[in-house]
Amino acid sequence: MFLSAPSFAVVGASDDETKFGTIVFKAMLENGMDVTPINPFVTASQGIPCLPSLADIPDPARTSISVVTPPTATLEILRQAHALGVFAVWLQPGAEDTAVLDFIANATAAGSATSFIHAAPPRPGAVRRQTTGTSGGCLVNDPDFPDVISTLRR
Q1: What is the pTM of this model?
Q2: How far apart are CA 54 and CA 8, in angstroms?
Q3: Quick one: how far is CA 40 from the chain centroid?
Q4: CA distance 136 to 1
Q5: In whole angstroms, what separates CA 77 from the centre of its chain?
Q6: Sorted alphabetically, which InterPro entries does this protein's record hold (predicted)?
Q7: N or C: which end of the chain has fewer CB within 10 A?
């Protein structure tokens, strides 16, 4: 599902090579994906200009986004993604908290066009792992916690 989109974005990619958002962004680039960094606080990641927000994505309905942000920022990102009709959102481990999971459950129950993937324990209406197309990813040697990098390495 997530990987079937024609374009991708990484919210949280930055100019810091040690940050997980940049590592995810770089892995997607290395896999030949059409991916855009989103970060209102830096101008570029891996030499590619950052968009300041999801609202700047040219075609949200055909874009999957990977979210690598603290939970306090994730909730607003999910609200934007839902409002824009983003194709799919994959929360990387640590990007969720109770408010984020409640939002996902409510959006899914309301028939959201956006698909959500995350590593938190299953909750009603939320998808624990990608279940169509390529199987869900995982942290290295831990199949219970999906992440984009592990999926791309399969």
Answers
A1: 0.82
A2: 11
A3: 16
A4: 10
A5: 10
A6: CoA-bd, NAD(P)-bd_dom_sf
A7: C
23, containing H or E segment: helix 20-30
Helix (H) or strand (E) segment spanning residue 22: helix 20-30
Task: State which residues form the domain around 45.
Answer: 2-153
Q: Residue 83 has what DSSP assignment?
A: H
Whole-number Cα distances in Å, 36 to 6, 11, 93? 12, 9, 20
**Cα 134 from Cα 129, distance rounded (Å):** 10
CA distance 86 to 23: 22
Residue listed under structure tokens 């290395």? 30
3-state secondary structure 24-74: HHHHHHHCCCCEEEECCCCCEECCEECECCHHHCCCHHHEEEEECCCHHHH
Find tokens 């590593």 and name the residue. 119
Whether the CB-CB separation of 143 and 128 falls below 8 Å is answered with no
Residues 17-63: tens digit of each pLDDT:
999 999 999 999 999 999 999 999 999 999 999 999 999 999 999 99
- The domain tally of the chain equals 1
